Structure formats: C-alpha cells, structure tokens
Amino acid sequence: MEAAAKPAPAAKGRGRRGTRASGDDRERAILETAERLLEERPLSEISVDDLAKGAGISRPTFYFYFPSKDAVVLTIIDRLVAAAAGSREEALATLAQGDPQAGLRRALEDLYGAFRARRAVTLAAAELRMTNPEARDLWAQVMEGWVTDTTAVIEAERARGAAPPGEPARNVATALVQMNERVQYASFAGESPALDQDRVLDVLVEIWLRAIYGSAAHT
Amino acid sequence: MEAAAKPAPAAKGRGRRGTRASGDDRERAILETAERLLEERPLSEISVDDLAKGAGISRPTFYFYFPSKDAVVLTIIDRLVAAAAGSREEALATLAQGDPQAGLRRALEDLYGAFRARRAVTLAAAELRMTNPEARDLWAQVMEGWVTDTTAVIEAERARGAAPPGEPARNVATALVQMNERVQYASFAGESPALDQDRVLDVLVEIWLRAIYGSAAHT
DNA sequence: CAACTCTATCAACACTGTGTCGAGTAAGTC
DNA sequence: GACTTACTCGACACAGTGTTGATAGAGTTG
To answer: Best exposed site among A42, A76, A97, A219 by fewest CB in 10 Å?
Structure first.
C-alpha cells in the first residue's frame, strides 16, 4: 500500500521540492547525518542546524532539500517500514505452509530482527509519533498490517480446531501486536523494567502461543 | 515511596520555590489550567504563556511558582501516580484472599479505571516521558511496582500448582504489564488499530489468564 | 558566445517560545 | 516608620524554526 519499491516517488510534501539533480549527494548526506545523530541522541535534541552542519551545508540550504526536520525522519522511517513490510510478507509465507506454531515464532523473530537492526530509527519513530500526525498515520498503517495478518492466523487456527474460541480474534491480535511493540521498545530503549534483549522473543512467543492456543484452566 | 500524602513536601526542584503563602491560589490555578488545557490539546501544543494566561498571571510570574512547564505536568502526574498506587494496594489486598482469577480481573479493572478517569493526564505522561528524564523515572517506578506485584502473583500461583511453569515469572509479568500500558494508551488516544474502550478489559483479562494459567496446547 | 534558465547556496530577517534579571509594589512585623 | 518577605512583571538574552532575496555557477539554446 504505502510506497513503491526502491526509486521512491517522493511522497507528497516529503523530500526535495524540485526534481532530480546532482544535489542527490546532499540529500543523502542529510539522511545519513540524521541516522548517525539518532544513534547518539534523541530526535528532540537534534536541530535542523545539526543536520545541515553534518551535511556540510547551511541551515537555509537544508530547507531546499527537506521542508522540515520531521520530513527527514519520516523519509528514514518510510524505509524502515518498507523493510519491515518485506519481513512481514516473508513471515506470512512461512506461516501459510507447515507448522503454524513454529511459523509464528519465525514471524516474530523476523519482525523483531527488522526493528532491532535499526534500533535508533525505531526509537525516533516512537518519539515523532507523539507530535507528528503523519508519523502517527504511518505507524498506524504498519500496526494495522500486522493486526490484520495476525487476526487471519488466529481465525484460521480456530476454524481448523487447533485453537479454542475466545475473545474476537481481531481484539486478541490487536493486544498482542501492541504488546510486542511496547516490549520491544522498552527493550531497545533500555527502560528500567524491560526484558533482556535476548529473552524478549522467548517471552513474547510463549504469551502469543498461550493467548492463541491455550484456554485458561480454571483454578 | 515517591511523595508524601496531601500537604506535598515539594519534591526537589518541583513546585514553588519559596515556602507557603496565599499565592496557593495561583499555584492551584496553574495546575487547574494545565489539566483543563490537556483535555483540549497535547502537551506539546501548550506553552508556558498559555498556562500563565489561564491562571491570570504574566509569564515571568509563572516562573515564581514553577520552574518549567514540565514541572507543572510532573506535579499533576505525581498525583495520578499516587492515586494509582492506592488502586494497586487495594487490588493486591483483594488478590491475597479469595479466588486469584476473579481477583486478577478486579485488579486490572481498578488500574484501568484509575487511568481512564484521568485520560488526559495519562496521555500527557506518555508524551512527557519521551523528552523528560524525570517523567521517565517516575513512570519507571510505577511500572516497576506493578511488575513486582504481578511477578509475586505468578510465582505464588505456580508454587501452589494452580499455574503451570513457563518463562521466568518476572519476564512474563513485564510483558503483560507493558501490554496493558500500550493497549490502554492506544484506546485512550483513539489510535487506529485499538480496542474499544469497553472491550479492553475483557481482552486483557483473557490474555493475562491464558498467559499465567494456560499452557500452549501442541497443535 | 551571449542571453536565458535552472539548480543550488547562504546572509539576513521575522517569528515563537523559553528562561532570567532587576526593579518594583503591597502586606505584614517589630 | 524602617525592614523584611511574598509576589509581580517589563525588558532582555537565547535558541530554534522557517522565509526572503540576492547571487553564483552549470547547462542549454538560439
């Protein structure tokens, strides 16, 4: 849905305002500077001037390439989201054939890996989401994709009798997907009550499996 | 732990800098203005000037009462956190005697209610947490409290044989508590994939019960 | 090659918001 | 009536954002 594959058709207001040019280097320099600085400090502590300086241009020149700091980060998030969408497709394919429980684990692993590989960007996305409607929408689309897929899996498993009935599949899917988001964020951000990076998956998988396949025993 | 009961001993830098005075009215006016404005728009769109104007004072005078906008919101969050801590104690007491599963539901209900009752403040807390270390720490303490309690419950249930073994109790507790936070936030904020306000509890309770008491059946 | 265009650049400006300083006023208190 | 203490705000200094207008250079193109 969101964007095309690689050439990037420059969505709406995002990106440079003119057309193509050799200033592609500058544009790339800005994006790279942003990614680099995000490894060091939160988005709120990065100014347009930092990005301009990092790319070797003045602040006004920055505005020739991007309409705002947010636009730079949105471009970066777009790429992360596109990569993650790839992971999701793959995961779905794996799930379709073979043991769904093992497939589920692999799916969660892929997703986790996609975001952990770009930890700083993931964190920036969460930060930007708080103040920027476009970021909020973009993230909402991502979440919606996973919720939809997860809902389908749960319904399929219930239909074939492998999973017991329970709360509406979409509701369960929503809660599980949001749990993953939060748990992964806390882990990446190094929050205080948070799971160890290498235990995240074990815990999430266990809860997903129990939520989908387990019925609560009664005392 | 955090603060005292009602007189508020003015923690560290927070609150007015002098001592007591009739200017208590002003301080209250600022806090009330902040709460009112937070019902209307996000924290990032509220300026110190808005708070001062709302309290009928000039901007410099605002700084006589609070060192920053963040300090005002932190004070408000403190109160929410204190109220929520009350709910937690109550919930724990309920849990201690009687049916743990019913108790668990009541506990989640109380928590949910405490935050839903102050939706705007809850949302502001999440926003502030992104940029303010003090807010981050405060929230971390809150989370830690619930994780600790939940861990104890899970371990007790496993010990008495009511719950099957599984991932370390604290890890499961962490994931569940974080799930609740995220799901409730999404619901309050009216995000796009989010649970309906009146279905949140049913879904969360089912997942908690299955995560704690259910073992995943194998296909 | 001269006129013309288009990309690219930046100094200087206008604006918004934060936080501080210092000079007050007004209400006790001794 | 002199002195403190609580409180108030105009004016300032700063930091950050986004815009304007002038200009330089690299290609066309007649």
So the answer is: A97
